[in-house]
Amino acid sequence: MSAIDKRSLSERDICTKYVIPAVGAAGWDIQTQLREEVYFTKGRVIVRGKTHKRGKAKRADCILFYWHNLALGLIEVKDNNHGLGDGMQQGLGYADTLDVPFVYSTNGDGFLEHDRTVTRGIVERELALDAFPSPAELWQRYCRWKGLTAPQQAIVSQDYFDDGSGKQPRYYQWIAINRTIEAIAGGQRRVLLAMATGTGKTYTVFQIIWRLWKAGAKKRILFLADRNILVDQTRTNDFKPFGAAMTKIQKRQVDKSYEVYLALYQAVTGTEEDRNIFRQFSPDFFDLIVVDECHRGSAAEDSAWREILDYYSSATQIGLTATPKETCYVSNIHYFGEPVYTYSLRQGIEDGFLAPYKVVRIDLDKDLTGWRPEKGKRDTNGQEIADRVFNQRDFDRTLVLDQRTELVARKITEFLKGTDRYQKTIVFCEDIDHAERMRQALVNENADLVAEDSRYVMRITGDNDEGKAQLDFFIDPESRYPVIAVTSRLMGTGVDAQTCKLIVLDRCIASMTEFKQIIGRGTRINEEYDKYYFTIMDFKKATELFADPDFDGDPVQIYEPQGGETPVPPDEGDGSGATGEGGTGDGGAANDGSGGETGDGAGDVVFDPPPGGGRRVKYVVNDVPVWVVAERVQYYGDDGKLITESLKDYTRKAVLREYASLDEFLTRWNGAEQKNAIIDELEGQGVLLDALAEEVGRELDPFDLICHVAYGQPPLTRRERAENVRKRDYFARFGEQARSVLEALLDKYADEGLASLEDIGVLRVQPLNHFGTPLEIVKLFGNRDKFLEAVRELKAGLYEAAA
Asked: 3-state DSSP: the chain helix, strand, coil percent, rounded to 5?
């Protein structure tokens, strides 16, 4: 038998015949330690107009796991026509994302190893095919790099929880888990994890706790949150495997027989000594404390949460946040230290795990120009209105323009009517009073659907028991009602609204922290319910925060010296004088960790207080008209910024980035065996030709769309291209039945487009199936190769004028 010609083998063959045997011979268990063709991202959801499509997911050829939870090596395989190291740069890019220390490139002749644990000396070396490192060798090198002692190795190697369903942590979750475990095993007492809303922080921390608990490194754990819904969701969902070892502290009852405790921090603190339930546990009772949503003031010197953290100072403490930069209080970083891992909103969208979003910005005339009452004007309650200019920040806080509220409700309803009136919607208002007025306006705008079910519009605020009772139904994907939830602050964090497709901002938002938390209500993807992206409808210019350089940038600590304090920031751990930007803004007491479950309006600023104190004065005016000045749609671009441009402009720029001239594009197009490969490449860059066709013309071929929009060429419709082929008498040399097949294919192209010529499966559908089975049709041309050649010539004929 002749030897196999390696150069004729595919990349897959090289992997199967050479790479896997070499790895197995080195002692790796192929069944449990090697995963092939590992897709570790889902592919970014690209949105243009009403169309969405997933981009290309990232895939590693082979990943080597020492334990199920620890990836040590990554192998990038190329066919034998490539050099040994041709896959290294791609492999290093993947390894950087996956946090894998050892990278290998191969073409089947041997391996090129890149050791990312080496900082000086030989980083890369060539290895013979039979010299691949064993699991024990890589594990020893890894432990030496991390400085792990034998006891620490026992903690790090503890496996994660597996319920048998096949669910495993996503790549960024396993990195977060491993880095946290390693930090704690190494003696780090305070750990901060920064993960964007919707990326599974609670599942991640469950796996951290499970491994530490199972390894015996942490025996009593306290999980703290500031919303009951967060505690209850955690208990019944992610933490469920703890079973009888877990309890929730409630009704101020203490039972010291459990190992895992979940608590609303308000339930364990209080102003009176006998109400400080947490003090009924000894200071060393817990050896691990996890603080969920720790951006909400947990690290503030005077917050109730900080009091708990200080009391249990001997315990290891983990802070979880989507927004590591504080805005009102001491930075989380000042207390917990730099995050051991950050997975940002931008990265989540890029990987395809989080939903991208469009922004609809609507400018109202009074918001832009302000409004000043005529002298002596009184509001609907008879109060004389202060003689000053009221601006956007005043509306619905100190001044209510009824017609403005009605206009906002009308625009929301117009959007829903133009898309889907049953898509879950959250409307964020300035305060509870504003939320109630907005609810009424939305009820009036949607009277027909409210008549079918009064829960179509619900106010869900901290003071309204009926509304709060509907919250679980709102976030349940299978529950149709409520559809529109009107709120102020209650739903700004911790609400897992998987199918929310519209977020309306009619509230002034001063901080990036609050902004990220609010839009986090829409970032979940739920493919089962066709939720791939969402829309932000912005009436208060809140999305101008996108221009903030800290939008998903590196977390920072803000220091504002008070009084006679030094202008030099204190050292880490000093804890003095550090505050977040904005001083006392950002909602005041509603965010300080002491406002309880309601939160709504607790921090309202008092304007024009009446004699003897009291809440702010709010004027109500119903005779001032309000108009829409401008309305525009923006898209979240792949650079993390909002773009405002038409589909044509975006397409032109994207195509010209790939093909600088028409000649360059024509050469690529005419030389491509599969034209759809070019289309897929462009769509991967965000060019959605289906959406463009709706704007330019549905009957145009992708080729004509690109040439017309990007290079200004006059387009031909698909039918015109098909007729040009017929005029050239292209079919004359074929037999009658073969000619009929080609005629039918040409008609199929004219009706449905290029894809029908690039998929042999078209022979199974009407009208082609009338000619027989695919095998019988192919035989009309002699054989499969001759049939495919005839189709290639047909495609060439379609674009002959462009050759």
From this structure: 40, 15, 45
Angle between helices 784-798 and 736-752 in degrees, nearest 10: 50
Angle value at C-alpha 522, between 521 and 524, nearest 5 degrees: 100
Q: Do 234 and 220 contact (CB within 8 A), yes or no?
A: no
308: its two tokens: 């708990």
Q: With contact defined as beta carbons under 8 Å apart, do 340 and 192 qualify?
A: yes
Q: 334 near 613, Cβ under 8 Å?
A: no
Q: How many Å apart are CA 143 and CA 122, to the nearest integer? A: 19
How many of the other CB atoms lie within 10 Å of CB of 125? 11
Whole-number Å distance between alpha carbons of 319 and 205: 10
The pair of structure tokens assigned to 636 is: 């979240």
Of these ranges, 170-179, 524-533, 564-573, the one predicted with the greatest mean pLDDT is: 170-179
Amino acid identity, position 765: V
In this predicted structure, the answer to whether residue 157 has a pLDDT above a threshold of 50 is yes
Contacts of 671 (CB under 8 A, 6+ apart): none
Q: Which pLDDT value is given to residue 586? A: 31
Count CB atoms within 10 A of the CB of residue 118.
Answer: 13
DSSP codes joined into one string, 318-382: EEEES--S-SSSS-HHHHH-S-SEEE-HHHHHHHTSS--EEEEEEEEHHHHH-B-PPTT-B-TTS
Q: Which residues are CB-neighbours of 785 under 8 A, at least 6 positions away?
A: none
User: 434-437 — which CB contacts under 8 Å span 24+ positions?
Assistant: 434/396, 434/397, 434/400, 434/405, 434/488, 434/506, 434/507, 435/459, 435/461, 435/486, 435/487, 435/488, 435/600, 436/486, 437/396, 437/400, 437/402, 437/405
Kindly tell me if the per-residue pLDDT of 512 is higher than 60.
Answer: yes
Burial degree of 489 (CB within 10 A; 0-12, 13-18, 19+) = buried
More confident residue, 88 or 636: 88
Number of alpha carbons in the 13 Å side-chain half-sphere of residue 378? 5
Two tokens, residue 196: 């964007």
Considering the chain, what percentage of its residues have pLDDT values greater than 70? 82
What confidence category does residue 139 fall into, taking pLDDT thresholds of 50, 70 and 90?
A: very high
Please answer whether residues 510 and 585 qualify as being in contact, where contact means their C-beta atoms are separated by less than 8 angstroms. Answer: yes
Lowest-confidence range among 2-11, 168-177, 523-532?
A: 2-11
In 3D space, the residue among 230, 219, 210 whose CA is nearest the CA of residue 162 turns out to be 210
Q: What's the distance, Cα to Cα, between the start and end of the chain in Å?
A: 46
Residue 741 to residue 58: CA distance in whole angstroms: 39
- What's the whole-number mean pLDDT along residues 181-188? 94
* Alpha-carbon gap, residue 340 to 319, rounded angstroms: 11
What CA dihedral angle connects 28, 30, 34 and 36, to 10 degrees?
A: 140
| Paired tokens of 790 | 């005839």
Nearest by Cα to 41 from 166, 172, 168: 172
* Phi, psi of 246, rounded to the nearest 5 degrees: -115, 145
Tell me the Cα Rg of the chain. Answer: 31
